[in-house]
Every structure is written in structure tokens, then in C-alpha cells.
Write a structure and sequence with these properties.
The chain is α/β, with parallel strands linked by helices and 469 residues long. The chain contains 16 helices and 19 strands.
Length: 469
């Protein structure tokens, strides 16, 4: 009898072209996404006289450096960044790669655009020069980020050398409380296992909670797998996955669709398959979360107080945590609901999908942003923006006092003109709260879209479930 296999193994094995004596494997790549950070990779190809091996399997979208206040290239912040964006258009045109440019409705953050277009499909090996490529694992793919030299290697060969990672299963069981989202789930997980808790592993998320979660919620969770140190995050494809992908532009059609679904059903982890590590999460115990420090693991329920780091036994860790408190301008025992905010950002590859804007809009309806708070809403793609506008969500955001922007990475990272000033505090639906992530000396707190909306209204961190009229 064949050994039971995990979802990860069922994808890794058929993509393994060759295994070297040192244990490294040459893997075939099904889909390669590139963005406006690919200038260096293309230069490496040019310096070596190499072309793009499979331009039909590579798709591009400028996202990191683009403006969100307009679709005008002239508004790109800085000459070098202008060249980053324009070089993507030049290089893709010359190499035959499809680009969804600024004026294309399909433009978006690559990790929103890929699943949205049906370019990310179950069973695929998907790569991109961005750490949050793990997002695409939510549809039953193996997806991970790579460096600039590796991007060049994939462009030239449609393959990549990798060492096989270990596996971890995160079982999430139970029913989430009303108003608790995928963002809260993944923040609770990272808080539980730490930023190095999954280092060297690919996480498979499973259990009744994941089965009940929307694909968009799964995308959020897989997106932040990297924040626990994981190489990738994955969810076995199921009926929800198939419903999400059906009729997407690049998804199979007709009889090919039926055959594909039949194959995809077989990707689920076999009963009895062994993981290198298993972690359990009780869904019923998860509440809306907010980070208080400079790592995604430094997170507590929004209704809680800033923890007392003086009780941490390890002196080195205690110093790190105290430095985080000092940087964030917080003290142990402060209630998070007493902490005022200056900026609110809803968007990014973590929470820039239509479900996220619906959740925030449901909180904002009939309310207004508190005085002194600058709030911006940045759809993750042009199609998300159009759908939100068709549903009237843009009016809810605008009437509540939010700026309604165009697609792009925006305030997730300070490389495109959308930044948080020094010393100011931001409630952000993005994925990283590192020192300076949203701007030099900016203070970033990670939250869900609903919590971000409630925080904008209250002018301080707020539990959207108990927000007053």
C-alpha cells in the first residue's frame, strides 16, 4: 500500500525535475508573477544574453511603487521609482510577458490579481519575487517568495533549485465568533507560535474552521504564513475553492474544467499522512486582534491591555519587547481601547479584496471618521475597486471620511508616497508592523478591516462588535 501523502507532497513530487546529491531539487514552475521590483532580474538576464524561457507562464503587474491617488504615471514618487515602473513595461513588452498596467482594470497587487484572474490554480507551483507569495496557497497551490537572482533564474529556465522544507499542519477547529475574521485567526496563530514558530516548514491549514472560511479569508491567512517564519501556507482545494475559481478568465473551461476539478479533488491530504509538526488552534477563543509591538507575534485582543514585559524571564527577549514598547510609545497596562490613532489604512495583499471592503463598510455605514484621523481605502485591484463601486461601497467610505484610492500596495510599505509620518500611529490591515515599515519612526498596529473601520470612527482602537451608535 502506498504511503499516505500530504497536500504539499502531492504538489512537490510531480514538480521535481531532478534531485541533486546534496538534497536540493530542481522544480518546474507553473506560474511566475513579477512586479515593478523585477528590474534587477531583467538586467541580470541582459548581462548574460538570456531571454525569458516561457513568457506565456509569466504575468506582471506594477504594484509596489505605483501611486494610488491617480493612474497617472507622472505621479509615481521619484525618478528611480518611475524607472522601476516603466522598466517593467519595457521588459515585459520586449520579452512577450503579459502585463496588467496602471490603466488596465485588471491591474492590481500581484497576490490579489493572480487568484482573481484564475492564474493561481490548485496543484500549481507558483513563484514571485515577493515574500507574501504564500497567499496563493489558499487555492491549493504551493507558492512562495524568491529573491532577485532567483527571479532571473526562473525567467530564464522556468525552474528553480530548492531544498525540500518540512511540513506543519495547523488544525483550527470550532466556530468563529461573530465579527472574527481570517486576519484575527492568523494574528492569533502567530501570537501563539511566534515569528519563528514555522521556520523551515510549509503550513497546511485544516480543520472545521478553515472549511467554513471563505476563500478570501483563506487568502489572508496564507498571506501571513510568512510572518510565522513559514516557507508557504496552503489549504486543500474544496467546493468553496472550485466555486471561487469557476469562470475566472484563466481557469479551465467546459470539459477541461470538469477534468481539472476531478484532479484537484485528489490533492487533499491522505488520511494518516504524517507532518513534522502539528499545532492546534481553538477558533472559539479567538477575538478581534491588534498588534502592540514591532512583530506580528506581539498581538492581543483589542479589548486587552498592553502586556507587562517585565515578567518575561529571558533578559534578551525582555529587552527586545521593552524596546518595542518604547518605540510604539506604549506602557504596560494601557488599555488598547484608550490608545489614539492618527492614520487608518484598509488595503494591501492581506486585506484588499471585496470581502474586506464589505466588512469595513458594514461598520462605517452611517458613521464618520473621528476628527484628526486620516483614513484611506485602497482596493487590491482595479476589479475590486469596480465591484465595490458597483455595490455602492465607495460612497459609504467617502461619506464616512475615507479617501477612496486606486489599486496598489500603498501604505503597506513606505516606497510609493503613501507613508505614515514619524511618531504617528497607524491602524493597518497590512501584514507587517516592523520598525519603519510604513515610514521612518512610524508606529504600525495590524488589525482586521472591521477593526480598522471601528478604530477610524472611534479615533482609538475599538472593538467593532461593541461600537456605539
Amino acid at each position: 500500500m502506498a504511503r499516505p501523502l500530504t497536500l504539499f507532497e502531492k504538489i512537490w513530487v510531480p514538480h521535481e525535475v531532478h534531485r541533486d546529491e546534496d538534497g536540493q531539487s530542481l522544480l518546474y514552475v507553473d506560474r511566475h508573477f513579477i512586479h515593478d521590483g523585477s528590474r534587477t532580474a531583467y538586467k541580470q538576464l541582459a548581462d548574460r544574453g538570456l531571454g525569458v524561457r516561457r513568457p506565456d507562464l509569466t504575468f506582471a503587474s506594477p504594484d509596489h511603487y505605483v501611486p494610488t491617488t491617480s493612474r497617472d504615471f507622472a505621479d509615481v514618487d521619484g525618478e528611480d521609482r518611475k524607472d522601476m515602473v516603466s522598466s517593467l513595461t519595457r521588459n515585459t513588452a520586449a520579452s512577450g510577458v503579459t502585463e496588467y498596467g496602471l490603466t488596465d482594470d485588471r491591474h492590481g497587487i500581484v497576490h490579489v490579481m493572480g487568484p482573481e484572474q484564475g492564474l493561481s490554480l490548485p496543484g500549481m507551483l507558483i513563484l514571485c519575487g515577493d515574500s507574501h507569495t504564500s497567499t496563493h496557497g489558499a487555492v491549493g497551490a504551493l507558492a512562495f517568495g524568491i529573491g532577485a537572482s532567483e527571479v532571473a533564474h526562473v525567467l530564464a529556465t522556468q525552474a528553480l533549485w530548492q531544498r525540500k522544507p518540512k511540513t506543519m499542519r495547523v488544525m483550527i477547529e470550532g466556530e468563529l465568533a461573530e465579527g472574527v475574521s481570517g486576519k484575527d485567526v492568523v494574528l492569533a496563530l502567530v501570537a501563539q507560535i511566534g515569528v519563528n514558530g514555522a521556520t523551515g516548514h510549509v503550513i497546511e491549514y485544516a480543520g472545521s474552521t478553515m472549511e467554513a472560511l471563505s476563500v478570501e479569508g483563506r487568502l489572508t491567512i496564507c498571506n501571513m504564513s510568512i510572518e510565522a517564519g513559514a516557507r508557504a501556507g496552503m489549504v486543500a482545494p474544496d467546493e468553496a475553492t472550485f466555486a471561487y475559481l469557476k469562470d475566472r478568465p484563466h481557469a479551465p473551461k467546459g470539459e477541461e474544467w470538469d477534468a481539472a476539478v476531478a484532479r484537484w479533488r485528489g490533492l487533499a491530504t491522505d488520511p494518516g499522512a504524517i507532518f513534522d509538526r502539528e499545532v492546534f488552534l481553538d477558533a472559539a477563543a479567538i477575538e478581534p486582534m491588534v498588534t502592540w509591538g514591532n512583530r506580528p507575534s506581539e498581538a492581543v485582543p483589542v479589548t486587552a491591555a498592553v502586556p507587562d514585559v517585565a515578567s518575561v524571564e529571558d533578559p534578551a527577549q525582555r529587552r527586545v519587547l521593552q524596546a518595542a514598547l518604547d518605540y510604539m510609545g506604549l506602557k504596560a497596562g494601557m488599555r488598547l481601547t484608550d490608545v489614539p490613532v492618527d492614520y487608518v489604512f484598509i488595503g494591501s495583499c492581506t486585506n484588499g479584496r471585496i470581502e474586506d471592503f464589505r466588512a469595513a463598510a458594514s461598520v462605517l455605514l452611517g458613521r464618520h471618521v473621528a476628527p484628526g484621523v486620516k483614513a484611506i481605502a485602497v482596493p487590491g485591484s482595479g476589479l475590486v475597486r469596480l465591484q465595490a463601486e458597483a455595490e455602492g461601497l465607495d460612497r459609504i467610505f467617502i461619506e464616512a471620511g475615507f479617501e477612496w484610492r486606486y489599486s496598489g500596495c500603498s501604505m503597506c510599505l513606505a516606497v510609493n508616497g503613501d507613508t505614515v509620518p514619524a511618531g504617528k500611529r497607524s491602524a493597518s490591515t497590512s501584514n507587517r508592523n516592523f520598525v519603519g515599515r510604513q515610514g521612518p519612526e512610524a508606529r504600525t498596529h495590524l488589525v482586521s478591516p472591521a477593526t480598522a473601520a471601528a478604530t477610524a470612527i472611534a479615533g482609538r482602537f475599538a472593538d467593532h462588535r461593541t461600537l456605539g451608535g
